[in-house]
Every structure is written in structure tokens, then in C-alpha cells.
Amino acid sequence: xxxxxxxxxxxxxxxxxxxxxxxxxxxxxxxxxVLSRPIKKVxxxxxxxxxxxxxxxxTRTRVSFELAEKRLSxxxxxxxxxxxxxxxxETLIDTVNNILAMKVDMIxxxxxxxxxxxxxxxxxxxxxxxxxxxxxEHPTQALLDAYSIRExxxxxxxxxxxxxxxxxxxxxxxxxxxxxxxxxxxxMLCGPTTLMPRHAAALGVRVEHDLDKALRWCDVANMLRIxxxxxxxxxxxxxxxxxxxxxxxGLDRARYERIARDIVIMHPGPINRGVEVTTDVAxxxxxxxxxxxxxxxxxxxxxxxxxxxxxxxxxxxx
Length: 318
Fold this sequence. Notes:
This protein is α/β, with parallel strands linked by helices and 318 residues long. It has eleven helices and nine strands. The strands form two sheets. It has a five-stranded parallel beta sheet, sandwiched between helices. A four-stranded parallel beta sheet has the order 2-1-3-4. β3, α4 and β4 (127-133) form a beta-alpha-beta unit.
């Protein structure tokens, strides 16, 4: 059983082996124990400098990565494109190379363009962690989602997971499909036809357009946020109204109780309460939404720790 990842970067779930994912989970188990201590910090990355490059707005992911980095005692450089030379026309490579000149070892990057993390990994000498690239992948979110299912149900293999909502614009959906299938789960994508990619069936998953049927089938329902910022105009170009979407694809208490059995409720956040899920469902005893947030720190600590194992430490004097 290996104690090292098979890849130097985390660009997407597609690049990870099943053994890689299991190693990340075992490592995250250890860090969850650390996070339960009165002093929630270890010196594992005290000789590593990490730059957080966020070219898109983010709260949950950015804070989760920063907290994970601080818990590992890494040095952190935070970068926001809104207050940088990117606004003056500086290219992505120039921006990153300027940061690397400051002896940065690892880059955590969110970017609106699919493939940006892969592009960067081919042009700069640093470890790259993809924190979301456009509508392509969001690997650490998929890892923490699968980890949360494993924690709640004791396994992922054989579990039926319905991913519901704006599949077309969701990087979370694609990464979740790759991760869950690698771990042996059964996956269904459910949403309006206008929010379902044409290639959905080619991913080896079930496709359903009736939420009630999906809920009767699944053990876990992962309710995705409507990506209004990616739809242009008023943000609802792909369906008539938020009210109609909530009626057909939103999960409220009445719909949940009609299932007549317990299913686990998830949401990658941020939640549009009253659209994807109502407050009484989001706060239900079978909801693990807050567990996902907590597990995100442990899983990201594990990813950073394992990737750092492949970074030369000579410039730090280690």
C-alpha cells in the first residue's frame, strides 16, 4: 500500500487512481483527529510556501484552503485578480512567474477558463492544485463529498448517489461523477433537459428528469447550486423562473417526506435556500451539509500534505 500519490499535481479527479483517493481519505482521517484537538496545528509544511491564486470570486473554497494551509503551518501568499496587474493586461504565466520568483512551492488556483490549471502545470515549475477551472473540474470538492458519504454511510462502493440540478454548468458534478465511479458508487444525474449536457449518458451514469423518481432511487441526493453567473443575462436563461425550478427540482420537506425513507442530503454550497433546498431540509437531521464544510479542511490538508512530499526543499534550507 503506497504512501505517495501517483501524480505531482491535483488537476482533476480523472488523473487520480483509486489508490490515490483512498490514500487521501486515510490521510484526512488523521487530520480530522488533529482538528479535534485543542491546538489544531501541526508543523508538517512549515518549510513550504503556498500561493492562493483566485481569478474568480470564492468564499468557502478559499477560506477552506487557507485554513488547511495554516493548520499545516505553511507560509501563505494570497492573490486576487481584482487587485492585481491582471487588470493591467498581465498574462497568467507572467503573474505566476512573478510569484514563483518569490520562491513559492505550490499554487492553489481557481480560474474561469477550463484547462487553466493544466496549462499552468506545463509552463511553471511548481505544484498546482486546481481549486476549480471554469465548468470543468473541482477535484477537492468531489473528494470531500465522497469522503463525507464514506463517513456517514461507512462506504462509498454500492451507494446510489443522485446529483441534482445545474449539471451543465457545474464543475462539481463532473468531478463527483469521476470520483464516485472510481470508488464503485452508482451515479444518477437529474435536472432539466436544458441544464443537462449532451454527453451526460456517455459518462456511464443514469440520466433522469423527474426528481421524485431520482429521490426514490438514491441513497444520497447532492443538490447543486444553480450557476446563475454562468447563464448570462438575468441568470435564468435555461428555465422560465426560479419559482418553477424550485417546484420541479427543489427539495422541500413535503417532497422529502413523500420518499418515506431516509436519504442523505448534500449541497456543495453556497445554498440558494428556497431554490435547490428549503431551510427545513438543509437543516434536517439527515443533512450533512455542515459536515461537508468541516471535512473540506481535513481533505484539503491531506491533499496539500501528500503533494508537498514531492517538492524539493533545498531552497528552504531543509
